[in-house]
Design goal:
With 460 residues, the protein is α/β, with parallel strands linked by helices. The chain has two domains: 185 residues, Aspartate Aminotransferase, domain 1 (Alpha-Beta Complex), CATH 3.90.1150; 248 residues, Type I PLP-dependent aspartate aminotransferase-like (Major domain) (Aspartate Aminotransferase, domain 2), CATH 3.40.640. It has a seven-stranded mixed beta sheet, sandwiched between helices. Strand 18 and strand 19 form a beta hairpin. Pfam families: Aminotran_5 (PF00266). It catalyses: (sulfur carrier)-H + L-cysteine = (sulfur carrier)-SH + L-alanine. GO terms for molecular function: transaminase activity. It comes from Pseudonocardia eucalypti.
Amino acid sequence: MTDLLDEQAISPGAPTPGLPKVLGADSRTRLADGREVRVVQLNNAATTPPFERTARAVTEFLADYGALHRGAGPRARATVEAVELAVDRIRGFIGHPADNGLLFTANTSAAINLLARLLPLGPDDVVLTSEIEHTSNNLPWRYNTPARVLDVRADDAGALDLAHLDELFAAHPGRVKLLAVTGASNLTGYCPDLAALADRAHAAGALLFVDAAQLAPHRRIDMAAAGVDALAFSAHKVYAPFGLGVLSLPRRVLDRQPPDPGGGSIDMISDMGAVVWAPPGERHQTGTWNATGIVALGASCAAIADAGWETIEAHERSLVARAAELLSGVPGVRLTVPADRYRSDDRIGTFPFVVDGLHHALVAAALEHEHGIEVRAGTICNHRLVRRWIGVPDAEQARIEAEIAAGDRLASYGIVRASLACHTDEDDLTRLAEALTALTTHGPRSTYLPHPAEETYLPG
C-alpha cells in the first residue's frame, strides 16, 4: 500500500532541507490605512498553522479513506494501515513507553479530564499541580477527582520552587499520588527539568503527568528516558489541524470500566445487560476515531523528525535571544519575565508583556489593524500569575470579578503574549518591535470601540 504519510509518495523529489514549510506563511492582510502587508504570526502558542506536508498528506488520505475498524475492503484496509502508521510515528515523536497505552481525544483539555476520571484517586489522596499551570491542568484535578489538590509555588518569572515541591512531598508522605506539571509554560515559556521531577515523584510513590501542549512543538520529548508516566498534547499546536488530543498513560490504569462507554468499548453484551469489555487498550477508544486528525498529526511528527530537532531547537533558541533583546529595548514596554531569564533558563519562545497606559486588548487590536501582527491578550489561562505581575489587591480583584460576572470581560487585567514557532523569522521580531515602538510613541492611530462581551476592541 502507498505510504500516505511519506513525503516521497505525495510529492516526488527529495524533501526541502531545513525547516518544514507551513501553509499560509505568506498570508497578507489590509491595514486600517489601506496598506497590504504580510501577516506576522505570533500567536503560535494558541494555534500553529499546518505544515504544507501535512496538508498534502491529508488531501491524499481523503481521496481513498474508508471505514476505520468498521468494515472490510481496500479503502478500509488502506485507512487502517495509514492510521497505524501515523500512530507509530506519534509514539516515536513522544518516546512512548512500551508499557503505556495511547488514547485519542478532542484536545489536551479533554485528555487531561479523561486521565483525571481514569485514575483511582480518593479523598485522602493528594495531587500536586503548580502556580504556573494552564487552567486545563488545574481544574480537571479539582472537579473530576475527590483528591486534595495543592499547588507548588513559583517565582515571579514562572519557575517552579523545587524546595517547596520537596516540602509538599514531605508533608504528605505516601499520600501524593500524582505530580501534574506543564512541560513548557504557555505564559512564560519556562521548561522544567522533567527527569528531575520524575525522580522526585517516583521517590515519593507518585506518578508524573506532563501537560505537553506547549512542549511538543518546541522540544524533543522522550517519555521513557525522562521517566514521564503520562503525557498529553494537541495536534493543533504541532502544525496539524484542530480536533485531536493525545493521551499516553500506563496500561494498568486502563484496566477498568471506561468512564465514557460506547461503540467499540465492548466485545459482547447479553440480553440481561452483562458486558464483556474490550481489551483495556481498546475499551476507552469509543466511537469512530478521528482518522484524518491522526494521519495529519503523524505527518507533522514525520516532518519534524525529518527536519531534525537540532535544527528546530537551534533556530528557536536564536530567535528567543533576539526577541528578548528587541522587546526589552522598547521604551514603555515591560516584559513580565525579565529578558535575562530567557538567557539563563530553558524557555521556549513565549513572551508576555504589558504596554504602559494601554489596555492589553487595545494593544492587540492596534497590532492587528495597524501593523498586521497576530498576538494574544488576556490572562492566557493563568489568572493568578498575571494578577501577581499586574499587582491587583484583594478589593480590586473582587470588583473586577463582579464586573466580569456582569458581562464586562474587558474589566479584567491582562498581558499581551507574542509566541514564536519554527516558521518565525527575525523580520517578524523586528516588525513587532517597530510596531510597539510606534504604539508607545504615538498611541493607536485609529479609533477603537470596546466590545466587552468578546474582550476585544474593534475599529470604530
